[in-house]
Specification:
This is HEAT repeat protein. By secondary structure, this protein is mainly alpha-helical. It contains 37 helices and two strands. It folds into four domains: about 1-100; about 260-400, Alpha Horseshoe (Leucine-rich Repeat Variant), CATH 1.25.10; about 425-515, no CATH class; about 515-673, no CATH class.
């Protein structure tokens, strides 16, 4: 009989319900077959931990058995058991108390002897994760004494790096541990470059930490990467170390630029490993994602890498120069030859050739040399560009494939050349996302033109009709002999639609498809989809801005919507009321938003600035918010990547337009938001 057989596992739970399967998994961990043990550990991890977020009752019961397995020399994969416990320790200190099983603290206190034994294990691969367990599982005073003593005797460099990080965990749990802080400060001033960096990373409030880290990073190109790779806390190469340093110094712009310059502004042939160059380039992306005023220095640092022998580096350099826009103009002649560069680095997120990023970089500065490859893309003679839209990379700058709309959108000055190509490309029913992206470009350009018969025909397509409606409504005209057909198809689509077809109908004919009932019909659709911001903001407000008549029923329903809990609904309804009543109603909700300032997402503020430009009451309220959005050096938000930069450019443009136009009268903006 096993010790775990005395536990009523059926009364406990894990991520998948009843824990009655845990005894069988624990039994499999005693197997002499290493593969069987590895599979059992994987299933235990999935059942007990999975993605974290809580500590289940089964984990509390299993804790001593997991550590016992790790202590037995005959057990396969001993370190994996310790890592599983370490994961739970991290969760314990990350989540609210209500997500921690009530029996966990007592279970943690009962296993101190096993943890002490693991810290003395002969195998450093077991000791390293055990250090993390000690820092997170034992009481801070006990953990501090054990870890400080170990640091004095430990000879393995990777384990010493883990000890320094563990002391940081102790300090985060309880800041009143002078011994741990003193040890970290002492090591941060030592001559050992690896330990110095590890200690500085572990000291969150060290004086001038950013500057000291930059100074310590100078030795990275010559540093031995193995201790960092073997470390249980880091498990990274030199690129990962540089990335960790960047994470720390990024808020300090001067220190960040100094660090990036160290690895990028170096003579050709200098001994900077490609791994560090790639991380530094990503650091440039992170910097310019956070700061508008970093564009010029980033261009200066990135430009010389256009001639790198590494295809991935050339692609990234072009990509970053596209991100900085006009600041890349001095490098136009260096970018242009790369229009013929077909090289691809297979390990990257992007799978397109360097030429794709070069085309985008030139398009962003309006260089006409990008036009031939752009026209080739539109004609289908080339497929270097994608139609996929990627989200931001969280806190890490990710280089993606280049989307065709990002390339074409900055080329409005060449609409006379490109618009016919765009409209022809839109008729390709085999690429619906291409049709949508190009329709969005036409909408952003706000140019007049005639939609051809092929685009009008898309109105019959159940999946793509609204792409055509965006294009037709934005252009305001269709090809000769197509008007009657377009009007008829739009009227058919407008029945039951949430406003897109009715908007295009009005733009094409100058009339409301449902006479004075159009606003009511759109409002009906908006209310039925009130949790869908597209269903409201993209379709209701154009009618609120131009409606000749709003019924009292319409106004009453909008007033009701301003009380909704969903922000998008409340804001759209308030903006609609402002437009329909010239600011007499709805401005109180807008004022609340303005008073909350930075706590509101930039897209929310930009949304209001775009639609309420002409309402005097809202103009006075929103001017301070608009000025912050238009003039600040910091980009709003915490994510990084091209999507963040693109959104910021769009939102700041709305803010500048708002400030350029004095309040008074109603906005007549014809376009969907």
């Amino acid at each position: 009989m096993r010790a775990w057989d005395a536990i009523d596992w059926a009364s406990l739970e894990h991520n998948y319900g009843s824990a009655d399967d845990i005894p069988g998994l624990l039994e499999r961990c005693t197997s002499v077959d290493g593969d069987e043990v590895a599979n059992a550990i994987a299933e235990l991890e999935n059942a007990l931990y999975h993605q974290g977020g809580w500590i289940c009752s089964a984990a509390s019961a299993a804790l001593p058995f997991l550590l016992d397995f790790a202590l037995k020399p005959e057990t396969h994969h001993r370190a994996a058991f310790v890592h599983l416990v370490w994961d739970h320790c991290n969760t314990w200190h990350e989540v609210d108390e209500r997500w921690v099983d009530a029996a966990w603290p007592a279970a943690a206190g009962s296993v101190e002897p096993q943890v002490r034994d693991l810290l003395a294990d002969h195998d450093p691969r077991v000791r390293r994760p055990a250090i993390g367990v000690a820092a997170g599982l034992l009481t801070p005073p006990t953990a501090e004494v054990l870890l400080v003593d170990l640091l004095e005797t430990e000879q393995d460099q990777a384990t010493r790096i883990d000890l320094l990080e563990a002391l940081s965990v102790v300090l985060k749990r309880d800041v009143e541990h002078a011994s741990a802080r003193s040890v970290l400060e002492r090591v941060a001033a030592s001559d050992d470059p690896q330990l110095r960096i590890a200690a500085l990373l572990a000291l969150p409030d060290a004086a001038d930490r950013a500057g000291r880290l930059v100074d310590a990073a100078r030795v990275l190109p010559q540093m031995d990467a193995e201790p960092w790779k073997e470390s249980a806390s880091y498990d990274i190469g030199l690129g990962g170390v540089l990335s960790a340093i960047l994470n720390t110094v990024l808020p300090n712009q001067d220190a960040c630029i100094q660090l990036l310059t160290m690895f990028l502004a170096t003579p050709q042939g200098s001994p900077v490993p490609d791994e560090l160059v790639r991380v530094a380039l990503a650091g440039c992306g992170r910097l310019v994602s956070r700061r508008r005023d970093a564009a010029e220095i980033v261009a200066t640092l990135v430009g010389p890498h256009l001639t790198s022998p590494e295809a991935g580096t050339r692609y990234t350099a072009c990509y970053l120069l596209a991100c900085v826009g006009d600041a890349a103009a001095p490098y136009a002649n260096d970018i242009a030859p790369l229009l013929q560069d077909r090289a691809v680095e297979a390990k990257r997120h992007a799978r397109r050739p360097v030429a794709a990023a070069a085309t985008w970089a030139l398009a962003r500065i309006g260089d006409v040399r990008c036009l031939p490859p752009v026209r080739d893309e539109l004609a289908g003679r080339s497929t270097n560009l994608t139609t996929t839209k990627y989200s931001s990379g969280g806190s890490y700058f990710t280089v993606w494939d280049v989307s065709i709309d990002d390339v074409v959108r900055p080329l409005r000055a060449h609409a006379d050349v490109l618009l016919p190509d765009i409209l022809t490309a839109m008729t390709r029913k085999d690429r619906p996302f291409l049709t949508l992206r190009l329709a969005e470009v036409i909408q952003d350009w706000d140019v007049r033109g005639r939609a051809p018969a092929g685009v009008v025909s898309l109105l019959k397509h159940d999946e793509m009709w609204w792409h055509a409606a965006i294009a037709i409504g934005s252009l305001g005209r269709v090809a000769r002999r197509q008007r009657g057909r377009a009007v008829r198809l739009l009227a058919q689509r407008a029945v039951g639609d949430d406003g897109r077809a009715a908007w295009a109908y009005r733009r094409l004919t100058g009339r409301d498809v449902f006479s004075d009932q159009t606003l009511s019909r759109v409002l009906d659709a908006a209310i039925t989809t009130k949790n869908d911001i597209v269903g409201i903001s993209a379709n209701l407000l154009p009618y609120a801005a131009t409606s000749p008549l709003a019924t009292e029923r319409d106004l009453a329903r909008l007033r009701q919507l301003t009380q909704e809990h969903h922000d998008a609904v409340r804001l759209t309804a308030a903006a609609a009321l402002c437009l329909l009543t010239s600011g007499a109603e709805g401005s109180d909700v807008v004022a609340t938003i303005a008073q909350q300032g930075q706590s509101w997402p930039a897209r929310t503020v930009a949304f209001l600035l775009r639609h309420l430009r002409g309402v005097s009451a809202a103009h006075d309220i929103l001017t301070p918010v608009a000025r912050d959005l238009a003039e600040g050096d910091d980009r709003p938000g915490t994510n990084v990547g091209w999507p963040v930069i693109a959104e910021d450019e769009r939102y700041s443009k709305h803010a500048r337009h708002f400030l350029d136009r004095p309040g008074g009268g109603q906005s007549q903006s014809p376009g969907l938001p």
